[in-house]
């Protein structure tokens, strides 16, 4: 028994924290049992095959007892925010867990609660989280309650609200609570404390405040976020008349964060949330480099989003990976706004022929839609101080990663199947163009084209909306002419790119930056017409 590997059960693994905790526990050498109401939601996780999956509901005592059989550490990361009676449900679920853990002789319970002041009236959200911690601590099973305020990491609801408000509003009227003090903490430091809690001695049975090294106001957080993100200084004007309820309606209006989440988050900010003690350092010393400062945590979160913005396989990456990266478990509104224009068309030409056209795009071969429109856009870019279309291409038929291609740069190249171009023209955001070639069952080809755009600030959103009406002309023309050119007979072995028929077009928009779903996908069957259009997403 001395060599037995401890088993951890994670309740809430489909959520933001739980989905990131599981790979960290596996990396630390623990066996992990994941408890979920719907195990099918875990099918796409990179750690799916490395854990034991158990169907269970926190409000079903029998399923909780079964889930805790032969478990050493139970992680409880469950909240019922979306229900009006969430406080009653949270109390019931906490009592069920405490009783089941006692009956199963679980060695420790670890709960992540909310940081709160000891001497102030709390919001219903914070009060409920405190009650859950109190119920677990009142039981006989050794329990550690970690209490955190705003968690900084892409996908965290608190961070996403901060991100959207700061990026979309260069000036804003705010409630007085923007000047309340907050002690944010980076997601990687939260996970470090959670993993370490599993190995604390049985005598440790208490709550700990956890926070990063900075104590800031929400106003300061928005301004520092803007500085890290390269945005202009945000103008924040506090007024006394905005109640938390009105503030939540405003957040719901200007951000995609759901009202059901925005309300409890804002209500919790009415209180100052600063660590009252730092006793956790006696049991879990800080890392040699120290806890992450706010700006570093923001920069890391933004870098992870931008580095993996259009990677087609980020959600399949092997664990362990940096917890600041976007996760398949993150809500659809997290990660910043992603605008897309996606178009797909079947071609009777073979994949090799279509790829010849794709890899030969730009330079002397042009962009397969109205040349004058591209020339005007290139001229406008040069006037604005950009590179325009004057760079052309190094080789007329072959591309390499890192080389310039007119106002684009080749960021990724899977020869024969996928070309990803990053825009270097002057646009208020990050722009990409992705071209993919997929063999069809009948020997033809499915050609897929995505223009993506991650806006920076309000100007970026207005830019996309102003050019979106022209996308059918620009990108629709490209799709039709690229596939049409591929279907024409090759002229000579040394000049395989026949001139494309001109198409009506206007200046193109660009493409985006944040982790997205796999390229390729299901294209139309042979004989189907091209499909496509602009969409908005949040990566």
UniProtKB/TrEMBL annotation:
Domain NAD(P)-binding: 12-122
Region (Disordered) location: 316-335, 486-539
Coiled-coil ranges per UniProt: none
Transmembrane segments: none
Entries under Pfam families matching the protein: DUF2867, NAD_binding_10
Biased composition regions of type Low complexity, renumbered to the chain: 497-514
Gene Ontology terms, MF aspect: protein-containing complex binding
Protein's UniProt name: NAD(P)-dependent oxidoreductase
Taxonomic source organism: Actinocatenispora rupis
């Amino acid at each position: 028994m001395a060599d037995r590997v401890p088993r951890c059960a994670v309740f809430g693994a489909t959520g933001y924290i739980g989905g990131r905790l599981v790979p960290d526990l596996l990396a630390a050498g623990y066996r992990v049992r994941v408890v979920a109401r719907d195990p099918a939601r875990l099918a796409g996780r990179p750690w799916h095959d490395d854990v034991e999956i158990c169907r269970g509901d926190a409000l079903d005592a029998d399923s909780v007892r079964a889930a805790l059989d032969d478990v050493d550490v139970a992680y409880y990361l469950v909240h019922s925010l979306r229900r009006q009676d969430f406080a009653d449900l949270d109390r019931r679920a906490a009592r069920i867990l405490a009783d089941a853990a006692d009956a199963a002789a679980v060695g420790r319970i670890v709960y992540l609660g909310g940081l709160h002041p000891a001497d102030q009236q709390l919001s219903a959200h914070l009060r409920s989280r405190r009650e859950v911690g109190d119920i677990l601590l009142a039981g006989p099973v050794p329990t550690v309650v970690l209490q955190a305020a705003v968690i900084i990491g892409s996908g965290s609801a608190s961070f996403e609200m901060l991100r959207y408000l700061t990026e979309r509003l260069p000036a804003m009227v705010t409630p007085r609570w923007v000047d309340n003090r907050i002690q944010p903490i980076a997601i990687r430091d939260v996970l470090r404390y959670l993993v370490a809690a599993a190995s604390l001695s049985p005598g440790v049975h208490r709550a700990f405040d956890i926070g990063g090294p900075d104590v800031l106001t929400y106003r300061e957080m928005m301004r520092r976020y803007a500085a890290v993100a390269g945005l202009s200084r945000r103008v924040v004007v506090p007024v006394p008349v905005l109640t938390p309820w009105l503030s939540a309606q405003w957040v719901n209006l200007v951000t995609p964060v759901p009202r059901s989440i925005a309300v409890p988050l804002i209500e919790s900010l009415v209180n100052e949330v600063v660590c009252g003690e730092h006793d956790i350092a006696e049991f879990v010393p800080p890392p040699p480099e120290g806890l992450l400062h706010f700006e570093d945590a923001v920069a890391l979160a933004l870098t992870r989003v931008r580095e993996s913005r259009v990677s087609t396989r980020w959600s399949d990456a092997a664990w362990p990976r940096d917890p600041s990266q976007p996760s398949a478990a993150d809500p659809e509104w997290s990660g910043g706004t992603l605008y897309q224009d996606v178009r797909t068309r079947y071609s009777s030409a073979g994949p090799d022929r279509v790829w010849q056209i794709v890899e030969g795009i730009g330079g002397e071969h042009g962009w397969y839609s109205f040349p004058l429109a591209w020339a005007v856009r290139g001229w406008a870019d040069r006037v604005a101080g950009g590179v325009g279309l004057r760079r052309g291409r190094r080789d007329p038929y072959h591309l390499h990663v890192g080389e310039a291609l007119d106002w684009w740069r080749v960021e990724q190249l899977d020869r024969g199947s996928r070309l990803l171009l990053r825009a270097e023209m002057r646009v208020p955001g990050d722009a990409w163009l992705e071209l993919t070639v997929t063999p069809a069952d009948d020997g033809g080809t499915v050609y897929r084209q995505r223009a993506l755009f991650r806006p920076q600030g309000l100007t970026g959103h207005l830019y996309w909306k102003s050019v979106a009406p022209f996308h059918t002309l620009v990108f629709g023309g490209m799709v039709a002419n690229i596939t049409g050119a591929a279907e024409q007979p090759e002229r000579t072995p040394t000049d395989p790119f026949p001139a494309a028929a001109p198409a009506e077009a206007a200046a193109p928009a660009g493409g985006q930056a944040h982790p997205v779903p796999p390229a390729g996908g299901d294209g139309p069957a042979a004989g189907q017409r091209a499909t496509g259009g602009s969409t908005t997403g949040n990566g």
